[in-house]
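ARCHIVE ENTRY
Sequence with per-residue tokens
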Amino acid sequence: MLTAERRDAYLEKLGFQQVPEATKTSLDALISAHQMSIPFSTMALHRAGCAPDLSADALYEKVVEQGLGGYCFELNKLFQELLETLGFSVRPALSRAVRGRDGRMPINHRGIVVTLDEGTFSADVGFGGPMPAGALRLEDGAEQMICGETYITERADDAWWKICRITRAGADLHDDGVPARRQTELELCTAAVEDIDFATLSDACSKPGTLFRDHEVVNLRTPGGHVGYLDGVLTVREGGQKTVTELATAAERDAALAERFGIRFA
């Protein structure tokens, strides 16, 4: 768990002036603030060319002190540390990104499962994509509206859950009779795993030939949408409008990363 000093600095970065209680309301607020304050980013991984250090000390320095963000194996691990320090019942979860694909991806994501009086919830701040800005209750068939976005949790078997989203995609990838434009974004396993189980996954996801190693990817939720960066292209979605800007020079890219995401490399 985090020291009191590190806990308070982490919370301050998220905009919290007081230590929140371990409640569903607080969990929702923490997730939303995290997604709008700390970017999903492969910048450091791409530039270093090697897997990140997943020790608690290294993650705290990189994410909180240096403001460089990180990917799921970093962000969700550090967020889990914060939740544990705040008194939440929390554990890691093996997950796989789906994003509407027909074929199954290998396990490639670290999720978080939180147990509250109200039930069991997914609490994800490290997906780097269209995940809910709040805790999502794992209840079969439950349709949940979170910050204007609709999600549906669907039990796949005794251990695995599908997290689906109502999207603007042109194709419905599910059977007839389900809501239009529904697609599975993530599959999450509730079986017990250990922190050490994710080291090998992180190594595999940071090798040459993978998205995270080969490309500069940054995402951040905003009050009115999202802002994303991919290999010099900045995409801003605000108020239902989409703006795409190609950043031609290194100076333009560095300025956009600093202004939009708070990412600055020495």
Remarks:
- The radius of gyration is 18 Å.
